[in-house]
Amino acid sequence: MPNELCLEEKALASLDHIWLKFRSAQLLQxxxxxxxxxxxxxxxxxxxxxxxxxxxxxxxRVLPDAVYVAAPGQTLGYDYAAEEKPEIYMIEFxxxxxxNDILRFPLSGEIAVHIENNTLGVLCEQLCVxxxxxxxxxxxxxxxxxxxxxxxxxxxxxxxxxxDSRSAMDRTKTYIESHFQExxxxxxLARMAxxxxxxxxxxxxxxxxxxxxxxxxxxxxNMAKQFMLQSDARLKDIAYQVxxxxxxxxxxxxxxxxxxxxxxxxxxxxxxxxxYSATILGQLLAxxxxxxxAPLHPKWTSYYYQNxxxxxxxxxxxxxxxxxxxxxxxxLEGSQADCIIATDQLNPLEKERLERIAPVHVIPLHQSDWxxxxxxxxxxxxxxxxxxxxxxxxxxxxxxxxxxLREELGNQNVLIVSMFKNRFRILPTxxxxxxxRDLQLTAPSGIERHLNIRGGLSLEALALIEADYxxxxxxxxxxxxHYWDQIKNSPLWQDLKAVRKxxxxxxxxxxWREYSAYASExxxxxxxxxxxxxxx
Length: 536
Fold this sequence. Notes:
Blueprint: H1 9-13, E1 18-29, E2 33-37, E3 41-48, E4 52-55, E5 58-61, E6 66-70, E7 75-79, E8 87-97, E9 109-112, H2 119-132, H3 136-154, H4 164-178, H5 186-193, H6 197-208, H7 212-230, H8 235-241, H9 247-258, H10 262-269, E10 273-275, H11 278-286, E11 293-295, H12 302-308, E12 314-316, H13 325-332, E13 339-343, H14 348-355, E14 360-363, H15 370-381, H16 384-409, E15 414-420, E16 423-426, H17 430-438, H18 459-462, E17 469-474, H19 478-487, H20 491-494, H21 497-500, E18 504-507, H22 509-512, H23 517-532
Helix pairs in contact: 2-3, 4-5, 5-6, 11-15, 15-16, 16-23
């Protein structure tokens, strides 16, 4: 079938100079893919299921006739509705050019393809078989199968029309965004989509992950935030502008959506505070202060990106190790920020340039604990009383969770471990150590000799530790994920006491590797839910 989409001539010409190297293929079944950094090219092909794929900052609603390509250095992740059971082929490969000319790989992001039969699925399955093969010949055959797969894709690229139902949903969603101030009803929106109200409710939630009414509330509240910051209008007038005739009902909906009342929100937003790291952002959120600027990224600060990107006007790069600091400084120039709060990880030139923009307050990261850091930041932003109230409430919650854990676990021990590449580190972060201490958890016998071992423990060494409960953090980068895929079904791993008794819990780097008040509260909730069950 002839292509309906002509690639740029330069991109097609690059095919004469490209060498492809197949690395791995696997079928991921029934699980979310946490946002992770990829070190090679990655092709995702959806065998079945629906959901949302995120490549760096770009999110795509999964289409049935499309493939998705991520490049080295990008991050990718996948999420789906609870009732879905997705199956995804994940294929990794490398490329090399036989020319010194600067060429680009012709495929990136979402690529629509013709699906004439099941050729794509058959080739993906063959790649998985080759990758699992025990002989060198089977693995070698994978190279030719991958070449065939790549040729098939390049020969079947096209513009894919959206399905009628999706187009109808998109139309009504756009209508909500432009007519949010009107009195919209499900019946009205369903008529626009030319389906029944009951089916519309179900389809909207399945398509966008939330109900149409919840989305309308989200749009109205986000617009109210903009009106509140751009004018001195009365709350009553703002409520009317976004579609609420009752000022008090608007306040209730705003507080339900944001967590604080419109009055408190406006008070907190009058000062343009810059949170220059995720740690500072976590401290400010504990104080109910929304910063003007903060690092947001679907991998490096995933929770904050998902929940607060609409609330924070200026998004700084959240890339690891602050490698994009010059980009961040450039973004802040002209922002008229009132103050910048940062940790002491700044380099001298970075700090000097920031001080030209606004006063810089530096919080020592390792010389004080997160409680002291919270109180220091509270002094800077004039929220000392709020910090005291928050800490008192947190300590009372810790005491309650500690008691629940005693009742649930008795004398059984708990081990918290992080896996990086092929090594395991026990309580590697200060936040993990603090949580273990505050909850007075029991450690496995003889654990002291395994702490702070340079380079971490091997799987064989970990197997010697008799842990009743194991909380495992798997760092989301390619080499670590490959190692996890190798060992998770191995006899040695399956024979771990916690694994045998189904007491293994996979914990996310966010919040377990962040050090802030807000992250501590989220860790507390996470460990209570995992070890006690969510019965509170």
